[in-house]
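chain below, 308 aa
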Amino acid sequence: MTRVAAVDCGTNSIRLLIHDSEAGEICREMTIVRLGEGVDATGQFSPDAIARTREALETYVERMVAEGVEAVRMVATSATRDAANRDEFFDMTRELLGRIQPGAVAEVISGEEEAALSFRGATTDLDDARAPFCVIDLGGGSTEFIVGGEGAYSTQMGCVRITERFMRTDPPTDQETAAAREYIDSLIDDARATVPLSHAATFVGCAGTFTTLSAIAQDLDAYDPEAIHCSEITFDDMRAVTAKLRAQTAAQRLENPVMHAGRADVIGSGATVVEQLMTAIEKETGGAVTSFVISEKDILDGIVAGLL
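prediction:
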């Protein structure tokens, strides 16, 4: 087996990575489908969200066929763990993925496995001299923490979930932001009780909120994965970006050329999560850690490594 595909379907986006064991990465794609829209309130997927996700996955399957993919693994994370009508979603993925590999269907993975796969992918290109690493995967519905070999924990905080639950105004009010911070801090405390954050020497941020914040902090003219991957952003620079984003409307955020249209309305909440993370990291490490390393690689790369 030489050519494989990984698909990650989260609360906000669905993503594809096709990798060849000899040629390396063939393609990496991302589509905002907002599968988890309203799940936090209703407990199930909406018909529109299923339709958007089906359309994106059909496009990915066509790409897999064209590229000669031999095996595929698709994982579904936070939103799918929470949805009562998830069988409708699974039936759709079984139908489409079966074109690539008979019997293939999306898998709902635990938060702990999600964290482990993200850690494997996110640390692939990092210097081992900077270990121990703590990888933080900030998604739409959940955020995973993992310190290599010492523990993993998944929390129910993500940019979509926080937006829908707390920060509904555009831009969010001070009262909404304060309520969100209190909630975020409580979940970070839960993670700290399980995962030894103080043991980490390097904190690695992955997924769309972190990569977009890096692009803005670097003042990039366009979203450039090569410039973002393994970039290091100080907490001071990060705080300047997060404060500005939170104060802007979604329309104002979209004026930045690195901002994806499907992220503009929720990144204010993601930025608030990052702010609370920085405060917690400073406390846990006694101020020894003052930056994030940003990784463009994540759970997709971990899945591919397992397939190969």
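The domain at 3-108 is CATH 3.30.420.40 (Nucleotidyltransferase; domain 5). The longest strand covers residues 24-32.
thats it, cya
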